[in-house]
Amino acid sequence: MSSEPIFVLPGDRIDASLIPSHEKKPLRLGPGLRHVPPSDLVPTLAGQLVTDRQKNAIRVETANGRYIPRVGELVIGTVNKSAQEVYFVSLSDYTAPALLPQLSFESATKKTRPILLPGALVYARCVSASTGKADGLGPLVGGMLFTISLGMSRLLMMPKKAQQGRLVVLDELADAGVQFETATGRNGRLWVDSDSTKAIIAVGRAIQETDEKSLGVDEQRRLVKKLIKELS
Amino acid sequence: MPREAEPSLSERTFTLQAISEGLRLDGRKLDEFRRLELSFGDEYGVADVKLGKTRHVQLLAKVSAEVTVPFADRPFDGIFQITSELGPMVAPSYEVNRPTETEVLLARLLEKTIRRSGALDTESLCLVAGQKCWSVRVDLHVLSADGNLIDSACFAVVAALRHFRKPDTSIEGETLTVYTPAEREPVPLSWLHSPFCATFDFFGDEGDIVVVDTTWLEEQLRVASCTFSLNKHGEICQISKLGGRPIEATLVIQCAQMALAKVKEFTDLLDAKLAEDAKRRDKGGLMAELSAENER
After folding, report:
1. Residues ≥6 apart with Cβ < 8 Å to A106
2. Shortest CA gap B14–chain A (Å)
3. Distant-in-sequence, close-in-space partners of B290: CB < 8 Å, separation ≥ 6
4. d(CA B52, CA B213)
5. pLDDT tens sequence across A129-179
6. What ipTM goes with this model?
7. C-beta atoms of B11 and A212 within 8 A
8. B20 and chain A: CB distance < 8 Å anywhere?
9. In the CATH scheme, what architecture does the domain A144-231 have?
10. For B169-188, what is each residue's pLDDT tens digit?
């Protein structure tokens, strides 16, 4: 894989050398690409072309777009209302709500299910048919919810975000001694909690500014220094 | 109809907590405005106003003029109207042709501030009494809204009107001639004063915390709000406080003082931008000679 990122626009020609080939595995197309028979690949989105030789996969990475739920993704939802056995949970504004069965909470039974008021936040996983119970998921109490782009939420959920995603703000803030807790939803939501109001605002602003201005590693460090100065 | 977006409980409690500590989510002070950006279009009378950065308020105001017949009961006045529209581009909960409360209030406030305060001399729009007059129309398009729509909308409309030039005309006997821009340089409207709006939002149990230029989230949580319309000389056109918690009289007076300072800032910004734009258009420095307009 070349080190220079490749950007494509809708309708661009993709050079054949960029398309991965594998002896056994079939080529997998991710979002933003369309196969035009017999053998052409046409981008349908503008963004960075990302290839994975091992998985024999290719896709276009963009930061924007509306959230479309997929099975297995972790999301932060807002409870709209409660029905007899389910909560109606909104994942993004102005879209139809998702259903969250009340018995799918950790160690919930008919008698001991959590009571969530409208407006409460939940950390949940999208499933098509609910069978499993929550692990580490559940209501988020207190804290603050920040809206971020879908690209940024994918970055935040990477296991090695500093190496792969060049995102160091959270690590830098933690190194500087700020104590906070975060939860990221794939639907472009970031929940931050801390003892001090100022710290929550600092963490939220750090992520939002990095997102909006797509800051590099050095700029992120500078931003964190500035925020730390304001904190003390 | 899509459901209106609603802040979650955490967002509500946290934002209120932060404001009571004197903090805001975007790091501003309570009495600090977002950055106001104004740019004019290539055509006369197009103003693009942007407040804030990525999550922002953006408006486009466009002025147009045409010759029509005046209203029968006001033969000496021209026609001046302001139309504003909040479409589904702002948020899916706004629908075309079904005005929401925000939209109606915005339209009424612009009407009171700009039209009824006599900012535009409508008599100067009259061409032939009872027969011909100019009809000036401002179309305000809201492209995105993140709180404080009123202040930015008023600024955009005033900026577009100040920037607008209508075609020059002359009357000889009974014949009215409207000149194209190639024949005669278009003339500005007869503008009397520039009123601006400044909105103050109140927070806290007593309604004693004053916040300016609130974002959408803060707007959902305020206990009251008050809009002052005034010009740089401190002449108040209107004050509107629509419902909400009662506010101390002294606080209202303090707000009026703050509004005056803010309006002076708005005026300076607009004057600077207009001068900059005039310089850009004045290629070769011939504008002064081209103009056939009389000094007022």
Report:
1. A133, A134, A135, A137, A138
2. 6
3. B184, B185
4. 10
5. 555 555 568 888 889 999 898 888 888 888 877 777 678 888 888 888 889
6. 0.79
7. no
8. no
9. 2-Layer Sandwich (3.30)
10. 998 888 889 999 888 889 99
d(CA B86, CA B49) in angstroms, rounded, equals: 15
- Give buried/exposed letters for B157-182 (b at 16+ CB in 10 A, else e): bbbbbbbbbbbbeeeeeeeeebeeee
* Residue of A119, A197, A198 lying closest to B8 (CB–CB): A119
Q: Which of B1, B4, B6, B10 to mutate to test the interface with A (most CBs of A within 10 A)?
A: B10
Best CATH choice for the domain A6-61 from the list 3.20.20.140, 2.40.30.10, 3.40.50.2300, 2.40.50.100 = 2.40.50.100
Global pTM reads 0.85
CATH superfamily of A74-140: Nucleic acid-binding proteins (2.40.50.140)
Q: Contact at 8 Å (CB) between A188 and A67?
A: yes
- Domains of chain B, with CATH numbers? 17-281 (3.30.230.70)
**Domain range list for chain A:** 6-61, 74-140, 144-231
Q: How far apart are CA B137 and CA B83, in angstroms?
A: 8
B95 in contact with A, Cβ within 8 Å: no
Distance from CA of A51 to the nearest CA of B (A): 30
Between A and B, how many CB-CB pairs are < 8 A? Answer: 63
Report yes or no: A220 at the B interface, CB cutoff 8 Å.
Answer: no
